[in-house]
Design goal:
85 residues; mainly beta; four-stranded antiparallel beta sheet; 6 strands
Length: 85
Amino acid sequence: MTENEIPVVNGKLSRPDGCEVSPEICRFCLYSRYFLIRGDRMRSPALAFCLRERVDTIPDIPAASAVGCAAKGGCGYTSIGNIIS
């Protein structure tokens, strides 16, 4: 799966579908893979329900300088709530 690193500029990032949002929303996005915080890749809380990853920590998302996104094309945000409900 291809990951795109989307930079966070002035507390906002531009999603693949063109909307500017806070990186906080990415913590619930199916395509969110990691947050780049002070040079370290911290896995996304969205992976908490992934049997392979099992993320159990919450990164300091406001300090993120980029977000690793696996969205292809312009599909944009998809909530993990749609999957687990």
